[in-house]
Each structure stands twice: as structure tokens, then as C-alpha cells.
Amino acid sequence: MSKSKKSKKWFLGGLAVVVVGFSLLVTFNWMWEKSSLNESCMSCHYHTDSDMAWKQSIHYNNQSGTKTDCAACHLPPKGTLEHTAAKMKTGMKDVWSYLTKNKEDIDWDSKGELEYAQKIVYNESCEACHVNIYPEGITDEGITAHLYYDDNKEKLELQCISCHLDAGHYNPNYQHKALTEAPKVSGEIHASATEITAFENYIETVPGTSASISMIAVPGGTFTMGSPASEPFHQADEAPQRQVEVSSFFMGEMEITWDQFWAFYGETMSEGRTPPAKVYANNSREDVDAVSGPTPPFGFPDQGWGMGERPAITMTHYSAETFCQWLSLKTGKKYRLPTEAEWEYAARGGTSTPYFFEGSPSDYTNEGFWNGIFGADTTQINRYVIYVNNSKNRSQEPSKVLANPFGLKNMLGNVMEYCSDWYAEDAYSQLADGAKDPKGPESGTEYVVRGGTYASDASELRSAARSHTRHDDWLRTDPQNPKSIWWYSDTKSIGFRVVCEVPENVK
User: Fold this and answer.
1) 497 in Cβ contact with 244 (< 8 Å)
2) Which residues contact 69 (CB under 8 A, 6 or more apart)?
3) The pTM is what?
4) 285-339: pLDDT as tens digits
5) Left if phi > 0, otherwise alpha if psi is -120 to 50, otherwise beta: which for 299?
6) Domains of the chain, with CATH numbers?
7) What is the side-by-side order of every strand in the sheet holding 447-450?
């Protein structure tokens, strides 16, 4: 072959490579851009009213006419390495999900919760557009909140979406405006409280409200508090085990519901912020004929899940205690939070096993190789507990589960429940064996919470499992100074149930 022919062949070959490469580059770029369009995103990420919720949000429905698309929030800013890396990672994940999952079976509602949204919305993307977070027309409350964000975003790991969860997909329950009045609860207004004449279950009727509370008579007895080292998922703060005697008491059949809590809120709501010192002073007086109530929360504290019979959530320990004081004044009885000993005794329902129903935590947990790959047989636990495997990442009404042997519902799972005791890791070491009606340490910084939540693994739902409040962490995004003593801004899995002491004349 002549030199000229060989050169021509190499030229044509090189030209072909360039053309093919350019075509591939153009095609790849077209696919890269096409896959970032809203239509492409929504072809797979199809969840209820996603398109309508986006068009109702401030990122679409605004005076400027600016329309923010999916990729602008769900990817880092364009032109950055982070954008490229996140898009490649997200793309591979989406392709795998497309090939292996049925989009109709995905719980899209749970993916709209803050815990998930924080993983797929990028703060730097928010700040790339919203350079000025103090625009003209911002309210005083907004200025306060944004100053707090500027000062604490790195230290407290705050994100824009921590407060603006409804910015991309509109949900009126997430709007951060003060709740000016309690939601209306229909029903007959009770004229008087229920009279207790015998140690038996009763329905408390709260005078002047339509609220009623089902109370279960829990007979006293002796039980072993804590768990042995041999119990699966045993923790150090559950030992040493102690024999404890508990006197008879009445306990709420279920956690205090929104209908019941709103009755308290509607009667006692503070229109402004009552100084904590004054509130504590008033509520600690035994002769007081009224209590100070909660200040309005920012947004609707039900998280958009619904109210009614669902457990009331996000109130502080102090707020729960004040509810008990209010209920005592309204009914003439002694209502309070349960002690830790009373709570565990009631949760066990006369059993000494990890749960009040059959089965071991190792049978139901999602941890471990076997259950992680093949899944656990959860038929039994699903009958009694609202937890990570059946909750759809939110609290549920008590009708979803069966009661324990004492007749109490949701003692395990659904939401954590406050106890009156201060928490201490070595509390049981301080407890005398054979103690009667113990009340825990005399002082502390955090309170005991029991029972696990709708997001808990089965290992965290054992009757002996202990946890505690995390006051500072649960108030991270609260910009108020002083911070609220009534409402937690960063937890939605805490509630409470009440105990009523048995009147002296009742046997």
C-alpha cells in the first residue's frame, strides 16, 4: 500500500473516531440534561400529588414567576464536582430501583418526611439561589430564625429544609406560623368528672370539655425490674435486676390523644410567651386554681399525620406534667406521669419475658445477616406493636393493635412515653432490692422515656429497654430566646400517658 493511501486510511479512521466520539458525547450530554428534567424525574418518582404539591409550593407559585425544577433542589449546584458525583450516584440508584422495584409498592409518603428529605435536598443548592436570606418584607420572626440559622448551622448541623419542608412540595401543616387557637373538637360537653367508687376500669370525663380518657385499673404486685444479661439486646443500664413492689394504680389505656390534649390547650393557651420562671412558680403551688398553658407552637405539631385519636406528640416533659396538673384540677383526682417502675410493671402485664407476647427480640429484629437478607416473621409482633416494620414511618391510631394482658394499648412502640423519673445509667444500682414504689434518682438532667417508637427496631421495644430525653437536641431548630418550655421542634416521636392514684376510700 502506498504512503498516500495509508495516510488517507488513517485520516478516515481518525475522522470516524472523532465523529463517533462527538456523537456519543452529544448523545450523553443530551441524556444527561434530559434526565434532569421534571418529566424524567416524575416518570419514576411518582408519588401522590407530587406534581400538584410542587405547583402549589413557593418554588412554583410565586410573584416573581420563577419556576424551580426537581434537580435544582435534589442535586448540588450545577458546575460542581459534587453535582456530577451526586447525579451519577442517584442515576445508578434510580436505574437499579427501576429494574428491581414496583413503584406502586413504594411508601412515597414516608419519603416526604424530614428524616428522608434531609438526605436528598442539598443546603448548598438552597444557598446558591437564596443568597440573601433577609429579603425585603421578611417578618421579625423570620429574621430571628435566620439569625439563629446563621449562628448555628454548622454547630447544630441545621439545614434550610429543617424549617422549610413545605418549600418544594406544599403541605399546609408544615407552615411555620403560630397556631393561634386550638383545633375544634366536637362532642358532648361534660358537666362533671367521673366518680371512682371501686377499683375497676372507668372512663374519665373532663368537665367543661368533650374530652374523655379510658383508664385501666392495674392491680399492684411484685416484679423483676430490668433484664438479665442473657436477654437478646440487653443493655448495661437495664441492670442489675431488682425485685420491686408496685401499689395499685389506674393508667390510661393509651397515650394521650390530640383530642384530649387540645382540650387542655384550648383552656390554658398562652397568647404570648410566659416567662418560664413565672410558669414554674404558678404550677408548683398546690393551692393554685388554674395552670399556665402552652404557648402556640410554630406550625401544626401533628406533622400532617392527622389528629383525633393519634397520640399527641412534640410536647416537652414540662408540658406533659402541666397537662396532668390541669387534669387533676379539672377532675379533683391525682393525675400524674407514671414512675419508671410503674411503667415497666404495666408494660409487662404480669410477664417476665422480653415482650408481653410470645417471641424473642432476635426473632423480630431487622438486625443480623439472616433477618436482614430474608426478613423476619413478624406476624406475632405486628398484632401488638406499631414499629418500623408496619408503621409507614408515622404514629398510628390505637385501634391498629391489640392490648396487653392488663388491657393497655401501645405500651411498646408507636411513640416514646415520658416517665416522672430522672434518668441515670446506674439507676438500678442505686435502687434497693425489694423497694416499694421507687421514684428513681432525686435529681438529674434528663428524664426517662420508655416504649420505643414507630421508627424503632424490635430490639428497642423490649419491656426492659430504657431511654431518656435529649432536651438540647430536640430544640435545635427552635430560634426563640428563651427556648420553648412547651414544644419540641426536632422530635415527633414523644408522647405520654397518665396515671391516676387510687383514692384512699377506694379498695
Assistant:
1) no
2) 36, 37, 38
3) 0.83
4) 666 677 888 888 877 788 778 888 999 999 999 999 999 999 999 999 999 999 9
5) left
6) 48-174 (no CATH), 202-500 (3.90.1580.10)
7) 466-468, 447-450, 416-422, 494-495
